[in-house]
Amino acid sequence: MPHGYVCLTFDFDALSVWVDRGQLSATPRSRGEFGAVAVPRLLDLLSRRGLPATWFVPGHTARTYPDLCRRIRDLGHEIALHGYAHENVAALDEDAERAVLDRSVEALREAAGVEPVGFRAPAWDLSENTVALLNERGLRYDSSLMGHDYAPYRCRIGDRVDAESARWGEETPLVEVPVSWTLDDLPHLEFLSSPTRTLPGLGDAERMFGDWELDLRYMLRETEQGVLTVTCHPQVIGRGHRLLRLEEWLDRITAYGVEFATVGTVAGLAAGGAQLGRPKAAPAE
Ligand SMILES: [Zn+2]
């Protein structure tokens, strides 16, 4: 039994993220295009190490790059949902969100013949309807929330939070495999600018991977079968200096004896009752 899991996830946003940002002039478009340049590099890097990954693919990307999606599938990786054109679902009403979900499922089915079991919200935010919609579709997991660092948990419906207190709603079958902005390459590394917001990015990839390694070491010391889920974007991580740091990081953490698993695999274990990420029992006095 592995003493911890690492889920490598890649959000293959390609042009969809620029569609969502309304930045469709030539250079933003080309930044999305670079994502497709980076995907084969990442696939080769993973294949050389025999590592599985989960690829969250918007419908827009699946329709633009069906061959790459089939290659991802044929190498045994998981493909999961990531909106159609990278919509912030928290800003959609229920009918619009259901339509986007239907359209994104259809696009993955057409491009790669896959039936996704998981979803990651493009803006890492869910509407009040998302959990019900994902359950209604029979999906196994979401990977957008941040309520734990190492332990998958059940998504709830009906949380009530106001200035007085928080009252939790009912748990549902949908498993949450949690994420964090600290475990996402984009805010660390990518420079983004728009009239309303600048994300400085351009940080030191080695420092980012060093922090991720410390998160992993803490997980292995403190928890039983914890899960560390990291998020990378091909158009961010796909530059030479970052890929070399990624390779070094993967080789270092492989030495800890962790098991690399897809998010779908981990969600399946959690749904089956596995207690992942529990604190280790204190040693007897
Ligand atoms: Zn994305």
TrEMBL record:
Gene3D superfamilies: Glycoside hydrolase/deacetylase. GO terms for biological process: carbohydrate metabolic process. It comes from the Bacteria. GO terms for molecular function: hydrolase activity, acting on carbon-nitrogen (but not peptide) bonds. PROSITE patterns: NODB. InterPro entries: Glyco_hydro/deAcase_b/a-brl, NODB_dom, PgdA-like. Pfam families: Polysacc_deac_1. Residues 4-230 form the NodB homology domain. This is NodB homology domain-containing protein.
